[in-house]
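User: My collaborator and I are trying to settle a disagreement about how two of our proteins should look. Neither of us wants to argue from intuition anymore, so we agreed to look at predicted structures for both before our next call. Could you fold the first one, then the second, and keep them clearly separated?

Assistant: That sounds like a sensible way to settle it. I'll keep them separate. The first protein:
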Amino acid sequence: MQGASVYTTLDLTNAFHRFKVHDRDQHKLSFTFNDIKYCFVGCPFGLKHISERYNAVLKRLLHGLPYVASFVDDIVVFSKSLEEHAQHVQEVVNRLTSVNLILNREKCHFAQRCVYLLGYCVSAEGRALDPRKVTNVAKWPTPKTGKDIQRFHGTANFFCEHIPCFSNLSHPLKQLRNAGDLQDLWTSEHDQAFENIKAAMQEAPVLSPPDLRYPFCVATDASKNGIGAVLYQVINDRYHYIGFMARSLTKSERNYSTTKRELLAIVYAIRKYHQFLWGKHFKLYTDHKALVYLHTQPIANPMMVQWLDVICDYDFVVAHLPGVLNVLPGSLSRLFPPEEELEGGNTGTTSSKNTDSAISLPHDSLHGSSTPVARLHHHYHTADMMTPPEEERDELLRLSHLKGHYAADAIVSDLHSEGIHWANIKRDAQNIVSQCLPCQKGNIGKHGYHPLHHVTANAPCDHWAIDLGELPTSQTGGYTFILVMVDIFTRYCVLRALPDKTAPTIARAVVSVFGDYGFPKVLQSANGTEFVNTIINTITEVSGMDHRLITPYHPRANGVAERWVGTVKQGIVKLLQGKSNDWDLYVPTVQLFLNSKHSPLHGSRPYSLMFARQPNKLCDYSNDDTNVSPQQALELRKEDIEQFEQVVIPAIKERMQRMRAAEKARYDSNNRIIDPLPIGTKVVIKNVHRSGKTEPRYTGPFRITGLNRGGVYTLADATGEVHPCNVPQSHIKVVSDDIPLSKDVYEVERILDHKGRPGHYQYLIKWKGYSEAQNTWEPQDNLNAERLLSQYWDQRKQAQQEAKATRAQRKRAAKNNASAQTNNKRQRRHA
């Protein structure tokens, strides 16, 4: 009934009598009066199944009328306008008349703004409780026995969808349902619960129909006795309640901690409102400690894992709000007692490692050392840093974190660069990060490692790695992609928002960057058509740079750019806060903050290594009284550049070498190093085109024919034809040599037709290198061409859809032609 504003209710008189009783069954309904036997010709009242039968017949009679609803002999017609309503009512009455059903005029109400249906008052505003029913409940006397409580509770429970936290309100009364006389058991607590339920029914809000144009909101709350939730929408700063739900906790659930009860309320709410919430972005208002509890468990128990499976299937953001009370009307919220403080207060404990007060510095001793690395990091010494007041520390950590949603190490490095330090700073930073919901939702874990192949460079701008990231189309500039270019030596990144990924667009962006920073010696990219095309090839030939392409479906080969794409997109998404249509406006900000963030590889800011200077701080320079002449500034700049080339660059190279050596040693000690597979090994390879669970995970078999310096293999199939793409070891699965590779192998050019039944199909094959006369029917077991089979069935499906669309188009054209001919005949008659 959503959107309707005019209603009519129709009531049928003697409705059951209109059903004819079959002649051979009339004696079953006979009775005797004054020695005369009478039989019902029409169906009498009192038969058990007649209501259901009548309801089904009425629904069939009114089938196809979306503006009609019926329940037994009550019919409601609803429309958006009075003119439309008159037509709807007339059609319904005509259908009822056609089967000799008679209306009870005294009980019919036409063209009403609100009507009473099944205990509710329905109007354009929504569904409210029938005030006549509420008046009866308000006058209900105080229960004297357990049976009285059962009758009262049953009546109130019928309207529980309109009563927030009904389980909490009714809990004291439910304990007395099975009691006898209540004279000695009834207390002020029960009297208060009784009055609160009656008041809640009198103040029950109107439930509005959901409006899919606006986002949904869910608020949950949990107590020691029950859990509850409310689904609502905020439209034009007004709350539109869609439904309330609540239930009592079981005996075992009452033993849950407060956090688990809050989480149980969340899981229960999203399950109950699944039809509204699944597949849509919504806001969840809760204490949200349940989510923190769930995500910080070192080892989740099976119950937590099950809850996590439910929660992670929905798209929502969490906001802190103590239960549903803050979203209720004021008159209702006053019925509930103040929220009790959670057990244990508001101090959650998290276990973390490496949280001592010492600053993480290079392994080399900084005191008394004359190495360049020691001189570079000397300013990190704690004796030169200031400790802020304790009440300001959380704000400093939060501001540093929100620059780019840094992790704990990056926050500490950023504050150290500002000369700020205090004891346990890393532990405090970890607490800030653990409390950031966008980070908890955006960060992902690494579940394994492959053999390391470091990509190195000797100087800034010598080697660039590039890649593309895709984001929703922005409304401000129509941008859909973001180009990420990373300098391998400094880890300096350049970001460009792009409207598409065509060759001219990519080429213009790349040349624009090279115009600012100079052409590199090496350009590293994927081998997609956006990077491998005539324009890029021309630029490569003219500039003389080495354009290195990675192995298809092996993103680790371009790991630096791939990782930076993920970091950039996470940084942008975290800054958007739900407004995704203007993400391109945040690209310069993300580029600046990422380049100002200390890189763990060399311990410096990429910006500093790229330009041989520190970036300007974001502060007020209007009162800057620096009295340095241009000549002095130039000399100082020359000294900085000279020191940068003679000290910083060698120190950075030394540090990166040690970092990579340490990383390799750590990796070798923690992982099993896989030796190269011998030439001739029989393997199958990962099906990178797999689009469904029914397709095979691997294709093949193949034999290894070569191994290049990048650690990827060249393969050949059973016919000896070389596989078109090199394959990394992560996509290879070694199979037994017992699997035969038949010598009588022929290559399929295409599949022409099929016959047989599912599971026993035969296919008409066109063989590559043979004429049409050599086509043969082959059973599916003889074919090793999953990709071609999939393409064949996809093409058949597409052809069937196109044929169906063509037939529909022809029918429409024929109908239009017939209509045009009819109009022409009418015009000629009028003429």
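The second protein, kept apart from the first:
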Amino acid sequence: MPTLFSVLMRVFLCAVLVLPMGYGVAAETASQSAQANGESDVNVDAELVQLQKQLDSIKQQVSGVNNDSKFGDLNDQTQQLISKADELSAIVTPLRSQMQSQLNVLGPEPDSGSALNETNEVTHKRNSLNQKKANLDSQLEQIQALHASAANLSTQIVNLRRNALKTQLALDSGSLFGARFWSPIVNPQPEDVSRLSSFSEQVASAFNGAWSADWRWGSAIFLLVALALVTLGGKYLEKYLAWLGIHKLPEGRLRRSFLATATVMSTVLTIGIAANLVDYTFTRHDIASDRVASFMDTLVRLTVFCSMIAGLGRAFLSNQRPSWRLPAISNPVAKAMTPFPVIAALIILIFGIIEQVTITMGTTVAVTIVVNGLATLFLALTTGMVALRSNQIRRQMVATGEQPEARSTLSGIIHLAVLLTTFAVLVSLVIGYISLARFLIYELVWIAIVFSCLYLFSTLVSDTCESLFSPNNLSGQRIKSSLNLDDRHLSQATALLSAAGKVFLILMAAVALLNGTFGTTTPLELMQKALDIWGGKGLENLRIVPARLVDALIFLAIALYAMRSSRRWLENDFLPKTTLDRGIRASMVTMFSNVGYIIIILLTLATLGIQWNKLAWIVSALSVGIGFGLQEIVKNFISGVILLTERPVKVGDLVNISGVEGDIRRINVRATEIQLSDLSTVIVPNSQFISQNVRNITMGNALGVATLALSFPLDTDPDEARTILLDSYTEHEGILTSPAPSVTFSQLSANGMVLSVTGYVNSPRLVASVKSDLLFEIIKRLRAASIPLAVPQRMVLENAQNTSTVVPPLLGDDVPRT
């Protein structure tokens, strides 16, 4: 790691040292280029009219330009116009000075009452010179106004061109190894040198003003406090928060997530306050210009973002307390990753300062490209080294027999995405697409920050809710006693509040990814954007553009993830903790999924920019399709909705439809799944449950009937048999006492008598097992009482040889015969 850091610092120091040297040489050249051109026979008025026409034409063209090359041409034309204005000023200024000298020789016009009288020639000469001088003054004012307007236009073109670099990703701005890329450092433009000198003077003036006699002691105190916050404040604040989490928070995972969050917040808080103190130190007096104040404000914001990167790295690695580490990272890998968050934060901070200097100065776009290219290069090397170094450490652990941490598929995908992005950035720098490379690397940094914060805060929310409503903690016990709640209600509150917090964080992350950018987006801006979206602001102007396709895909992925997570939470966490039966829970989950997917589809179309009043042709096409080929699908869909709302049958019911008897396992949009007794599944269209007769055996908590019909011989005592049957039913634990069991004399014939005994069970599903148990018990008791059952009659035929033939009962006989 020292080798990587030393290489990065050497390259950066070389760039910083070469840049002022180039600007110094250019400054000497620029100082020798201003010379007087003397009197000329140029028609100044005509030239002014021509230059004004050119300036108006450039302004009109700027408003419709959207590519870098055209911006460059217009800026060159503007610079040429400024040069011509300077030439005209060089012509007019000496002539005006000459006229003023001649007027000084003639002197002022004498008073009317003076004794001295001028000749007519002198008076005429003075009037002529005054007229010429007034004409030259007017021309000089026009030249100065033209020059100021052209300079302002050039600055606006440069700003527009710089902003266009962020959106024109396919712009070829020169390879990193090409001479054109390094030309702003080797041969800087004179206007860049002049602007740098002007801005340096403003910064120096603000610095000197902060150390003037009136402000000196306050500046010293503020800077000492800022230094103390950076060096000692964060350290002691983190120690205090760690002590607070250990001694004041209940045992559990909340301590771990609280410490990680406290590490990030303490780092951002101390460095942010220190940066604001430095800003206030040098901008609190009137000497600081608006440009310096704007530069310092942006610097403070950039410092806060960089401190967040460093804080997140320290929180997730947690080398001081490895057992409290949130992500699953082994100790050797965590120790190897320690310097990288700080290196990345310093690279972003240093080059962010240089970039902000160029923006504040209004330098040419070539300087901005150099700064962007170098910053992108160092960041890409840092992110690539993170992925490669972690892999190297894991291979070394495997070689030495140690077991690295278990990596999920998601972590592997993230690791591969970082490597591919780094490779794409380096290739883009080599072939000259600096804007694309910068966009990719800063989007990677921004996505990493957003998802890191999402992981950190979602863990904190989940652990906080779990600890707050835990019946084992003091807070949960107080809530339980004060509100007279059960443990089931506390678990429901935990699941509900943690899910609401996670959904809110996911929505904020989506807003940050779709609308935020690194270094400029603050939490307050994210909240304002979320409120605007909630209120519908901006949705009325949606149009389908290529950029919105990416937004729609990102939104669709996040919405599907949130939908599935919500369904799993509703099905596995929340509803099982309620008193609803299983069928109602399944119906609610299915209805929630159907409505949710419909809302996701509509919102995805809205993100694409499709207006609902433009969907009339789609509705017409669907109507035709339904009329010809989608009748059954729509009918089954409507029937499924009716089944879920009216609930004539529900999941878990035992039904019989068209000879198919089984348990309903799932009610889908199109069909219903019925599981038979042999565990096979029959899929029945939903429309059949609406249009056909359906027997719901278990509807309304129906009871099962266990009836047995037994045949006894005619010589059997029916009262004794009746008592045995009733005792067997009454003593069985599955038979209900109400309605009470009963015995009926159902049949009497020459072959015997038939007694039927009937009892009720809790569910029709229990009838078979209860009847089997009763038969075992009744047979046992009848044999103990020597009461036989009627046996089939047999016919025995005897012949002379004393052989016999047994004739079986005839088919259709109720009682077998002999």
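Some points you might bring to the call about the second protein. The beta strands are 654-657, 660-667, 671-675, 681-685, 695-696, 704-712, 742-749, 752-761, 795-798, 804-807. Confidence is low (pLDDT under 50) at residues 1-40, 810-818.
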